[in-house]
Amino acid sequence: MRSPHRPIITRALLIGTAFSLLPACTQKEPPPPVALPTDKDSVTLIEKTPVIDVHTHTFNARFLPVKGIALGKRDIHPLLSLASDELVIAIANLIVWTTPKSPDPSDKRHLSPSDRQPNSRLMEDLARSVNRDAMALQGNRKPRSITPEKVASEPAVQGYIKLKTGESTFDNLSAPEKARLTQVVKMFGDGSATATQNREGKDEIKHFIDTLTSDEAAMEGLFRLDHTIQRKRQVDLIVSHMMDMAPTYNQPEDGKDLLKFERQQIPRVNRQQQKANGNMLYFAAYSPFRDQWGEGAAKGHALQIVKDAYHKQGAFGVKVYPPSGYAPSGNVIPHCPFSFASQPCEQWKARYKPNGVKLDPTVLDDRLLELFRWCVAEDVPVFTHCGTGEFQARKGYAKLAHPQHWKRLLTRHPELSNLRLCFGHAGAGGFWFDSSEDADWGRTVYELCCQYPNVYCEFGCFDAIADPVARANFTRQLASLIKKSHDDQTPFQFSKKIMYGSDWFMPMPAAADRVNYLNSFRVAILKAGGPQPAELYRRFFFKNALDYLNAPKRIQKGGLPPALKLHLNSLLDM
CA 36, 574, 57 angle in degrees (round to 5)? Predict the structure, then answer.
């Protein structure tokens, strides 16, 4: 395998050529604000109906293996693939270092424009950390030493510091800085991050970076700021979903740059829940690779982590994320990826060839089946990513989230027929916006929702909803499916299985204004409800969510913050 360290002159020439081929990076205008109806009945319905967002995130960069993500995925992003391991590590370390280490938010790198200078302490510290990290990655082979000057010349580093210090907006960055930072952000989303402005005039890339590097204790408040008009909160309750990514990207949890999932992350998100005044609850993440990777690795360890979170740490449910490398059933071990960089294959080995022995795919099936059987026995809700893109560990892993895998699981295991399951993203946007693209995803989600008593879906990150034409298509499709479910007398009515979600704070280029995103759904659901929209509207925005969450049973179990218990009971009484 070729070394990832190409000659500096060659790489510089390639990067220059790549930038010259890029189209000009222009600032897109935000979509027009959607006009809410002004008739008395609609105004009253909107004002009196609470909103539950069943798909949000409240982690920051120290909850994610940022360095592992950058090293494992940068070879599939054109510009980052031309950078050395060392420069990729530099921007990853910079992102983590500028993120507070709660509960001591003062432990944070406060940047200034002078930090971009090669002789600054920050550049020297970054170069030192990069050389240390690169040495550990390469084992016995000594990597090329990187200098503070080289770190300071990296466009992503320069652009990042300019944004974080307020010295520049994204629109005013240089073309190389824009291009490189865009590629960095794409590694955390669906690859469509652009410079669309939001309501406050901040572009989506800056919004994402600022939120990702915020104090974890401030996250629920940041969500509230994004969803407030004239001091009135627009969302009454959020469901925060954790991500357990360290095993996927094979980054050791040092407890500082990457918090330990079981010992630090879960207690900290529980602390967020405790301090949110009843406005937040959370799902603990599950990774089947925990049985073979990391501290405490042993058969059943992955399941024990979520059991302890549910029974002892106030978790409401379980989040699974198939694009990180596994399907809910019918697993097949993918081929080791070919890459000029070393880390993609090393990460593949951590997932599928632990201790040098290739994993039998049925082992993954058995681990997932054990989880789902426990969830059915305890009536614990499961939330799964179900979209055609987003945060896949390697290109092609998104297909592991296809609802057909879940259909096969539920068909082969009748004992799981009562599994309380929500399809995040509802199979992605193609089917829902009247497009033939990947239509079988959304169609299968619809069928499963109508066939099983506790299967639901939500429409997080449907940023096309802000476009009037796309919104009209969505409304027609949703209304058509609701009517079809009623006319076909399906076992379970589709109108009782749909929920609102946002996937905050992931970038949404076409719907950067989060209130406008919510209002777009308000208008769509009102129109889909026909002449008497109140029942569908109330179900979509909060009643179906309470059913999916199994709120009465979770309250009865105990272990929730008093304010959350009180808030849930008030919602159940509405």
Answer: 65
Helix-helix angle 85-97:121-138, to 10 degrees: 120
Does the pTM surpass 0.90? The reply is yes
**Which pLDDT score, from 0 to 100, does residue 191 have?**
47
Specify the pairing of strand 317-320 against strand 382-385: parallel
CB contact set of 183 (below 8 Å; sequence gap of 6+): 74, 77, 78, 79, 80, 156
Nearest to 463 by CA among 274, 261, 76, 194: 194
Domain range summary for the chain, segments of one domain joined by +? 8-27+75-204, 49-60+221-572
Give the CA radius of gyration of the chain.
Answer: 23
Which class does domain 49-60+221-572 fall in? alpha beta
pLDDT digits (tens, 9 = 90+) for 80-111: 665 677 888 899 999 999 999 887 777 777 78
CB-count burial class (<10 Å; 0-12, 13-18, 19+) for 174: middle
Q: Is the dihedral of CA 392, 397, 399, 402 positive or negative?
A: negative
Residues lower than pLDDT 70 in the chain: 1-30, 77-83, 135-144, 189-202, 390
* Secondary structure E strands in 399-556: 421-424, 455-458, 498-499
Between CA 153 and CA 150 the distance in angstroms is: 5
Give the pLDDT confidence of 169-198 residue by residue, as tens digits: 888 999 999 988 888 888 876 544 444 444
- DSSP assignment of 234-295, as one string? S-SEEEEE----HHHHT----SSSS--IIIIIHHHHHHHHHHTTTSEEEEEE--GGGGTSST
Q: CA-to-CA distance for 327 and 500, rounded, in angstroms?
A: 25
Instruction: Using DSSP bridges, classify how beta strands 232-233 and 228-229 pair: parallel, antiparallel or unpaired.
Output: antiparallel
C-alpha to C-alpha distance for 241 and 67, rounded to whole angstroms = 21
The owner of tokens 């309380």 is 420
User: According to the model, what pLDDT value does residue 73 have?
Assistant: 84
CA distance 95 to 148: 17
